[in-house]
Design brief:
The complex is a heterodimer of chains A (314) and B (148).
Chain A (H helix, E strand, L loop, with lengths): L26 E2 L12 H14 L1 H4 E3 L4 H18 L4 E6 L2 E6 L4 E6 L10 H6 L5 E8 L2 E8 L8 H4 L4 H5 L6 H12 L7 E10 L10 H4 L11 H4 E12 L6 E11 H4 L3 H13 L2 H6 L6 H14 L1
Antiparallel strand pairs in A: 1-8, 2-7, 3-4, 4-5, 6-7, 6-10, 8-9, 9-10
Helix pairs in contact in A: 11-13
Chain B lengths: L9 E7 L7 H9 L4 E6 L8 H6 L5 E7 L1 H13 L7 E5 L5 E5 L5 E4 L4 E3 L6 E9 L4 E6 L3
Parallel strand pairs in B: 1-2, 1-3, 3-4, 5-9
Antiparallel strand pairs in B: 5-6, 7-8, 8-9
The chains are: A alpha+beta (314), B alpha/beta (148).
Protein name (chain B): Dimethylamine monooxygenase subunit DmmA-like C-terminal domain-containing protein
InterPro entries (chain B): DmmA-like_C (IPR048037)
Pfam families (chain A): HODM_asu-like
Chain lengths: 314, 148
């Protein structure tokens, strides 16, 4: 489940170069929409809600001072949803009385905007249960950014529980070869202006097709990395792409970071010849420290052989 | 090791009986430069109760040095932070073994680590690799599961 069949809509993550390095590959977001609804909406949102119910400690975190910023996030997302998908979401406003309808789930929720007593969940937790994206809220203070709230159901092998409250630099401290880059990216993030959102794509390979690859469950899904063979590689290994979007919140000055995760099995991915050619070159050249960090090293050779075999067939 | 901070209005030196020897050079320098200071050596945990009051009486520009065992430094540091000192207002030096708190990535349980690189989680039995990834909020390092 959870891997898309639609090649055309898959967010191919690579640019012109046949070489991949960590970089700040953000570009102005067009259209400036934090959310995208795909064919997997019902499946993925259902899975998110299940994870939030069963594992709240690893899927949601918030610091009390983020409440105002959370209402801004709710407002930003609700307005984008009803404007971009009027057949799927509705909003009726009478002063601060809001009635939000999710037609896909047949839900209608009434609350007073800005009054958290009228909502059963935190605003961020609430609106996150209507979108496929993970939502991370970073607050800016003392010249730095801090992960002060987040709803994270589909992490690529990291822990919101552990990273909660950390500064940007502390969060990224385990990434090898990231040292000089993190300061430049941090400065870039702090200069993001309201009304001028940015987007970027991040990629990795996954053995398996689970979206919910939390660090907490690594012991369960990490074993698949050792089970990649010449026979199953096309089916088992997936390209995992995160479409990440960054929005400055004008009142609280926080930054909303939305992450939409897409997966495509290699056997589908290779049907697109230019993708096959470029990815084969990139993976061939990829430095070991990046492959290690992305968790690819154990089966990189098998993937490379598979890609090269496929190239020969064309 | 400690470094001498120039331009401070006052120094506080706080040590246990092990840590005291690492402060002598700094005290001499403070005397040479006529910077006022307080110096306390705490032999037992029960003597630490006055520390809160001591810290809360200090003015801006006061700089704190803490020297001693891992547990001692941690306790005094927490009291200093509660009294309004920030990390920029202090230096610490740990004598002897450094005890680390390790959080198991699977069950979030706490483990105590001395200098090993791998431990078995006492709560869920997972083999954990001790990492450098540190959380101030939890005052702990992250233990990653190793897959055999």
């Amino acid at each position: 489940m959870n891997s898309t069949d639609n090649l055309l809509s898959f967010p191919y993550p690579f640019g012109d170069r046949d070489v991949y390095r960590y970089s700040n590959n953000a570009s102005p977001l067009d259209p400036p929409n934090p959310i995208e609804i795909t064919d997997q909406y019902i499946d993925e949102v259902t899975l998110k809600r299940k994870l939030l119910t069963n594992h709240p400690e690893r899927c949601y975190y918030s610091s009390p001072h983020t409440l105002d910023a959370q209402w801004e996030v709710l407002s930003l997302i609700v307005h984008h949803l009803v404007e971009s998908y009027p057949d799927k979401f509705e909003l009726i406003k009478q002063n601060d009385q809001w009635v939000f309808s999710n037609l896909l789930f047949g839900e209608k929720i009434t609350f007073t905007f800005g009054d958290h007593e009228t909502l059963e969940l935190d605003p961020l937790d609430f609106i996150g249960r209507h979108v496929q994206e993970d939502l991370i809220l970073m607050m800016q203070r003392d010249g730095d950014l801090f992960l002060d709230a987040g709803q994270l159901c589909f992490p690529a092998n990291w822990s919101l529980y552990f990273d909660a409250g950390m500064s940007f630099k502390e969060i990224h401290s385990p990434i090898p070869g990231f040292d000089s880059l993190d300061e430049r990216i941090r400065q870039f993030l702090m200069r993001i202006e309201a009304g001028k959102p940015w987007g970027r794509k991040n990629w990795s390979l996954m053995a398996g097709n689970k979206l919910d690859t939390s660090l907490e469950t690594f012991a369960e899904w990490g074993h698949a990395r050792k089970k990649v063979t010449k026979e199953n590689v096309g089916e088992l290994v997936h390209l995992r792409v995160e479409v990440q979007k960054l929005f400055r919140l004008p009142k609280s000055n926080g930054i909303l970071f939305t992450i939409h995760t897409h997966m495509l099995p290699l056997e589908k991915f290779i049907q697109n010849k230019p993708w096959l050619e470029q990815f084969s070159a990139i993976l061939h050249e990829l430095p070991e420290f990046i492959a290690d960090y992305k968790g690819i090293s154990l089966y990189r050779e098998v993937v490379l052989e598979y890609l090269e075999e496929e190239l020969k067939k064309r | 090791m400690f470094s001498y901070m120039e331009g401070k209005r006052k120094f506080l030196f706080c040590a246990d009986s092990e840590g005291v020897r690492y402060l002598h050079i700094l005290v001499r320098q403070a005397m040479d430069e006529n910077v006022p200071f307080d110096f306390h050596i705490l032999q037992e945990e029960r003597e630490e109760s006055f520390v809160n009051e001591w810290f809360s009486k200090q003015k801006m520009g006061t700089y704190l040095y803490i020297s001693g065992t891992s547990d001692f430094v941690k306790r005094i540091q927490v009291r200093a932070m509660n009294a309004g000192f920030s990390e920029h207002d202090m230096q610490t030096f740990i004598t002897g073994t450094i005890k680390k708190k390790l959080i198991c990535c699977t069950c979030h349980g706490e483990n105590e680590v001395l200098d090993s690189t791998h431990v078995v989680c006492v709560h869920c039995g997972q083999d954990l690799e001790v990492s450098d990834h540190y959380s101030r909020r939890l005052d702990a390092y992250l233990g990653y599961v190793t897959i055999k």
